[in-house]
Design brief:
homodimer; alpha/beta; 8 strands; elongated
């Protein structure tokens, strides 16, 4: 049984606690949060503390706090020589305190408070300074997911950046679709099957192979009509920039 | 049994032929295409023609050809007074020839040649000039899908535009994610669960409620790091514009 202390009580921490607790190979022996209030939503059978000096001996300490608080928390730990990993996509391993053995346990997914996630399908990106620690992280990851990847800090930074494009920016484009339909008394539901199919298509082919639309065909007439029909200046800007990027990529020709 | 003639043999036409042929309430009595070669991939039991003067009597003629060819084809039909509909998102009903009774039968989905689609989940947007024709279109739509919507030409134009954002532009963002991972020797597979989850989230909540990421938090430090890490100028431009749009929408505050 791998004994884990979880530091943090936000979305990622809460989802990790649930996943590790459900596995027979791992055990959350303590959850820490600097405020007691933040711990209240956790399962009542879980041992919790808001006193960093009372953390128990564990095989691994997982820091799951906002990106800009990771380094500081790693420095405030009252012990050394132990395996301390963080869950952030954008924090370099080197930024955490070298007094402990450092590592990264980064589950690449978008977590929301009131939404269940199937952890078994979430890719876990792992990094450690030596092989023994890496193997322990690998065991922990395989206890909750079927997908583990060795990703170094430089790669992780790029991966986090790619995630901003395919998750945060994509969601914003969903929002623009929502705005356009709402403005015209059209149900957003009409767009949902298209959204799901667009996401499903890239499971079987590359996004480049799946590109469609007026910009792909360099269909100037349709693009002009679209630009005229858009009412928000922000939508016009996005339309122009992304259409141009698609035209540049495909040279206006069907693949 | 509703008797349908399909004009066109591209992706949309092919998928419609399959769907109507599979229903017991509709029958494709003929498929027309101006070139014989274009008809070859269709089921051999289907009657086909490339001579527009030999089209049989039908309850409905469906024009499913590229947007810029719809009007011309409607003018070239050698009959009048019949129900002729087209399947295009961007062509106004008024653009087709008034010698026939006009309508629109627009299935809102992205169709690819070698990809099966479940038509029953595809929203079909309907428009007609009178109620009798509308009711026939509704029967045809319900024969192949559970989702029918009455959408006029002005709304359809906006819907088609929204579809460009949530499908074509979203797919291009998937492509940027692909480029970033490929450049850094990372498997694009790592991003796929995130892409699926991002699409799934909007089934239960609005995109605005589901927005996350550095721009949503107005986390300037992370955004600066990201901009530095991007190598392609086009990616930088997209990053800047979409981040700013998100900041403008949320005022840099968590909802």
């Amino acid at each position: 049984m791998i004994r884990i202390v979880l530091l943090g009580a936000g979305n990622v921490a809460t989802h990790l606690i649930k996943a590790f607790s459900a596995s027979s190979e791992t055990e959350i022996i303590m959850a820490y949060n600097r405020s007691k209030t933040g711990l209240k939503h956790l399962d009542s059978t879980l041992k919790t503390t808001s006193d960093i000096d009372t953390l128990p001996e564990a095989d691994c300490y997982i820091i799951a706090v906002p990106d800009d608080a990771v380094a500081k928390l790693s420095h405030s730990l009252p012990f050394s020589g132990k395996l301390v990993v963080h869950t952030s996509g954008s924090v370099n391993l080197q930024e955490t305190d070298a007094k402990n053995r450092r590592g990264v346990f980064y589950p690449l997914q978008t977590f929301s408070k009131n939404r269940e996630v199937d952890f078994s399908e979430i890719p876990i990106c792992l990094e450690a300074e030596d092989e023994t620690d890496y193997n322990l992280l690998k065991k922990m990851a395989s206890a909750i997911s079927v997908k583990q990847y060795q990703i170094d800090s430089a790669q992780r930074k790029q991966l986090h950046l790619a995630a901003v494009f395919v998750c945060n920016f994509v969601n914003y484009l969903y929002h623009t679709g929502y705005q356009i339909t709402a403005e015209n008394n059209i149900s957003f539901d009409i767009l949902k099957p298209l959204i799901q199919e667009t996401a499903s298509k890239i499971e079987k082919a590359t996004p480049a192979e799946m590109q469609t639309g007026p910009a792909k065909r360099n269909d100037k007439k349709t693009m002009e009509k679209h630009l005229e029909a858009l009412t928000l200046p922000e939508h016009k800007e996005i339309y122009t920039l992304l259409s141009q990027a698609i035209i540049n990529t495909y040279g206006g020709k069907e693949l």
